[in-house]
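Data availability (excerpt). The following record was deposited with the supplementary files.
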Amino acid sequence: MEYNEIKLLKQSEKSTVYLVREKENGQILIRKVLQGSHPVYLTLQECRHPYLPRVYSVNMTEEMTEVIEEYIEGESLRGGGIPKKGYS
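Predicted structure:
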């Protein structure tokens, strides 16, 4: 599949995350490029769970791992956490 980059979402020393659009059908997805080999994404690709983004493809070498996964619209929980109000 081929993708058009829409936006850079995050960049660090170990990873880069992009919002992309699949050229053929226009679907919005996440493209992660991670340094090193991360075989956990092969397991996640086979895992179907309503609370996890679907992993569509994994391309892995010893030097890098590229992951295409479902884009879930909404706000990140990073830094905010889950409100404690109403929970015991």
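Summary of structural features: Residues 3-70 form a domain with the Phosphorylase Kinase; domain 1 fold (CATH 3.30.200.20).
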